[in-house]
Amino acid sequence: MKVRRDRSDVYHDLLETAIKPCRKTRLVYGSNLNFEIIKRYIIELTQAEMLEQEGDFYKTTEKGCKYIDSHKALIKMTESTLPFFGIIPD
Fold it and tell me: Helices marked H in 1-90 — which ranges?
């Protein structure tokens, strides 16, 4: 059974993809979403000032980079504490 990604994972994938300026097509491939769904995420991330648009290109902002770092730290911390609680991640 596939596990669905939550919103924070999708944000991370989009922002990670846009560290180097890229077009919407690259964001679609990098985040494994379709064009219709990605529109909403682009709007949310742009309004949150984590993603900026420069012409046809999208780029992760400094605030977006901080989000990526925080997300990675949280995942690392969670993975290291799960065995303590008897949970073995896949």
Answer: 7-17, 24-31, 35-47, 62-81
What is the rounded distance in angstroms from the CA atom of residue 39 to the CA atom of residue 42? 5
- The pTM of the full predicted model, rounded to 2 decimals, is 0.83
Q: Which strand (E) or helix (H) includes residue 60?
A: strand 57-60
Q: Please report whether residue 34 resides in a domain.
A: yes
Q: Containing domain of residue 30, as a range?
A: 7-77
- Number of domain units in the chain: 1
Tokens 């219709």 found at: 36
pLDDT for 45-90, tens place per residue? 999 999 999 999 999 999 999 999 999 998 888 777 655 555 555 5
CA triple 75-80-82, angle to 5 deg: 90
